[in-house]
Write a structure and sequence with these properties.
It is built from 29 helices and 36 strands. Strand 35 and strand 36 form a beta hairpin. Strands 5-4-6-7-3-8-9-10-11 form a nine-stranded mixed β-sheet. Strands 29-33-32-31-30-35-36-28-34 form a nine-stranded mixed β-sheet. A five-stranded mixed β-sheet has the order 12-13-16-14-15. By secondary structure, it is α+β, with helices and mostly antiparallel strands. The termini are far apart. The longest helix is centred in the N-terminal third of the chain and has 17 residues. This is Pyruvate phosphate dikinase-like enzyme. Keywords: Kinase, Pyruvate, Transferase. InterPro entries: ATP_grasp_subdomain_1, PPDK_AMP/ATP-bd. It comes from Mobilisporobacter senegalensis.
Amino acid sequence: MNLHDKVSTGLEGLDQVIDNLRLGDNVVWQTDSVSDYKKMADYFARKAKMDNMRLVYIRFASHEQILGDSQDIKIYHVDASKGFESFATEIYSLIKKEGKRVMYVFDCLTDLLKYWHSDLMIGNFFKATCPYLYELDTVAYFAIIRNFHTYSTIAGIRETTQLLLDIYQVNNKTYIHPLKVWQRYSPTMFFPHLIQDREAICITASSDASELFTNIHRGENRLDYWNVIFNKAKKVMNFSLKQQEETKKRLMYMLIGSDSRMFQLCDRYLTLRDILMIASREVGTGFIGGKSVGMLLARKILEIEGKDRFTSLLEPHDSFYIGSDVFYTYIVQNGWWRLRAKQKTQDGYYKYAPELKDKLLHGEFPKDIQEQFVQMLEYFGQSPIIIRSSSLLEDNFGNAFAGKYESVFCVNQGTPEDRYEAFEQAIRIVYASTMNEDALDYRMNRGLSYQDEQMAILVQRVSGDQYGEYFFPHIAGVGNSSNLYVWDESIDMNSGMLRLVFGLGTRAVDRTDGDYAKVVCLDNPLRIPPMAYEDQNKFSQHRLDLLSFTDNVLVSRDLDEIVPLDLKTDKKLFMSPDHITAAYMRELGYKDRKIPYILDFKKLFTNTEITSVMREMLALLSKAYDYPVDIEFTANLNKDNLFKINLLQCRPLQTKGLGNTVKIPELTNDKDCFFSGKGNFMGGSVRLPIDFVVFIPGNTYLELNEQGKYAVARQIGLINKEMKGKNVMLVGPGRWGSTTPSLGVPVHFTELCNMTVICEYSSRKSGFMPELSYGSHFFQDIVETGIFYVAIFDEHKDVIFNPDRVLKEENMLNSLFPGSKQFSDVIHITKTAGMEIYSDIVTQVFRCFWLDLYIKS
């Protein structure tokens, strides 16, 4: 050992006992008081200054200052109230900045309980920080209060640190008892030692040692501080309402988060009993996340404001919540915290995300968490469950994160070991989805890239029943309290709408390949979107998403395969004979075939009260939120056509509002108008200038092979990036964001997120058709980003569509994007100075034209 690698504690006697400190040592003092730790830190600091060593004090606690202000000491004040990740990341950054051979003194770690309420997270911080200090050849002092932490926390600290020392005050005498001294040993090292002046006198006699330790209280194994708090809170249920409210609010800060509009709503509707019930179903510690909060809050609002109206109509939930601290514990205990910290930097945000995503898919969970997982799975038995993301930022006012993170179905079949492994892997998949490109872009675009995005998880029993080998709900979908997408001037926007499917709701939240969800206006559920009568089958749902007990996975099946099953209710509620298709089949010579069905839900709307109930629920939730809302739900019916609704999710509908009436100028020449029509737009009443139009001709796009269509999508992404800040209208055939290139351009939302207007147009000849995707994740992104959306159905009356008016202008693609010449036949960019788009939500009219040419004088 090089003498220059040895460092003094400032107490000569203690140096002799432990053979000095070494560069790289982390030193943890177990003490009964901060003042005892302060004495040891003072010895260390004075000696470090005498030896001209750099000294840094990390100040974060509310207790007395450990080291006094001095020009020889650099003091960093770090805010622990911002949460574990911000705190740990900031300390990582300052340690990196300070570099090698620095002496550190930290405040007492136990004080972090005031901010994090969890022994688990203190252990995580220590495990995340100390290895880095060791690598930089530092010496760092820490302290924890004795008999205050769990055995597992102490065990984790003992495993990680190089020195663990007990310090006692007994009869006005100071004793130090080394418990761990890494890579050093002497016959008397681990005896207790009496500190006199600067000497350390070894207590070797059994009588003296016995007398010493009989005066020292040895605490029993403690619960995590988190559990201690909630156990104490249970006793408050017998106290006054005022005391209950005060306790409830403290617990809400631990489970729900900081003060916000959602927090205030929870404070208004949830009781202390509700909060304790939530805590009793939490695995680990920490926040339960936005999705869980939204679901619980919505149910409570309906219970209180609806009085007895919805009690018998709502399916109860028995969800569990995996706390956000488990996410951090998973990262820290698998040794990935350094990688996580690098990924949170400006340079590393995208660079390190793929590596971290891969690691998140292959880690191990701590044994105590595994045991809680087992107990949860034993509770659910073999019922199918869904593991859903519930991050801290999800489903709040301003940021929905709709569809950005994964949800994973566990059909839950097989041996207990098989079911457990599938469940663990589902959690890993959700955790790894925090590093998905869409999620990274979403956070970056909203200025959230460096905020804590703590991933909690909501575990729900899948709503539905077994039908043959399959498990699914009768209906599922999304609902919105405000219907911003209207196609008929008689539509009452305030009545809300549904996007409804048969089977699992995955087809309601995604733009599914070749399939269409049922769009339901709740003021008149039988009203259908604009389409020819013979097209009703074409633009309806043909496939169902189901859970297969046989295959033990989520599967898709044709409707024809499900029709023969006993649905345990009247199947005609959901489907009607498709006489048009049957007649067509007879014309082709298929005379013996059974009449096919079409999913139109007509009898569901006429023979049950489900649409009126959904309308009332949405109105009540919107009133309580004082904001439009967006929900996810399922419903199941029995033989008597009675239904139960399962409210799975509720969040603020991220919309800028309906706007005021806009006076739309009349045109002098329809042929020179770019487009005009009634209904089929989203974004309220607007008047928007357009600087550029990016147009995709349907006929040339259709001629491309699949690889060519994907290449067009990627080029649109480059255009979207480069034209950010300009008023650009993107116009294309069929569905933007389709996963099937034959139905539209397969862009990701992040590849068109900077557009001012998105336009989808139909082309019957080419087979392209816009989708009224109101309520889908794609829609949520459009509305949340403030993009105006319009669909042009060229064959409909009152519709003007003159694409040649744009295409005859010079194509600026290659001049704006050199090297893009190969796309010039399929991407046309026109500069459109003077073009404006108008819409009026009252008259339902939208119109786009060059204002200076076509306004009547």
